[in-house]
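Lab notebook, design round three. We kept the backbone fixed and only want residue identities now. Task for the bench partner: fill in a sequence for the structure below.
Input structure tokens:
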């Protein structure tokens, strides 16, 4: 191996080592578990388990970081996915959304799961347990449809949000 290649490899190794000092923030802000989607909608156990496995790592404050979340730059990539997922939808804060937003969450979740574009392929690659079968997708979709049809996801009076009536 020539000298320039060795220098380049050592430089790359040095950069990779230095990157490990820049850790991602895994702290969870304070929140009430009573605001959680699965709690408020009284999700059946099987649906709750499927959604926790396939959705909650990116779309709630219940993220379970895998071992490789401690290795930069992979950790940075994971954190950006989680931040983006929570920004779009955070099931842990479901009760804080408006009635219209809650209704939309139910509809969009059903569509995303039944049509197969959630969870993302990049997530399923590292989380094989999140690879939902067609039957599991249907089960989640049917339950969400029942919520949508009953209006449970949208009605403000279903949840005590601490708001006073006018």
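Proposed sequence:
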């Amino acid at each position: 191996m020539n000298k320039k290649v060795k220098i380049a490899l050592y430089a790359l190794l040095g950069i990779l080592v230095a990157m490990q000092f820049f850790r991602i923030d895994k702290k969870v802000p304070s929140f009430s578990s009573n605001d959680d989607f699965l709690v408020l909608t009284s999700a059946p156990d099987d649906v709750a388990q499927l959604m926790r496995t396939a959705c909650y790592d990116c779309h709630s404050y219940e993220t379970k970081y895998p071992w490789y979340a401690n290795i930069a730059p992979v950790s940075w990539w994971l954190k950006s996915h989680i931040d983006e997922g929570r920004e779009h939808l955070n099931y842990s804060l479901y009760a804080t959304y408006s009635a219209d937003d809650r209704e939309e969450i139910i509809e969009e979740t059903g569509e995303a799961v039944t049509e197969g574009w959630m969870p993302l392929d990049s997530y399923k690659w590292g989380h094989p347990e999140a690879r939902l079968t067609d039957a599991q997708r249907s089960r989640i979709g049917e339950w969400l449809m029942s919520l949508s049809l009953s209006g449970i996801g949208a009605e403000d009076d279903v949840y005590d949000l601490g708001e006073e009536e006018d």
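Keep this in mind before ordering anything: The two ends are 78 Å apart (CA to CA).
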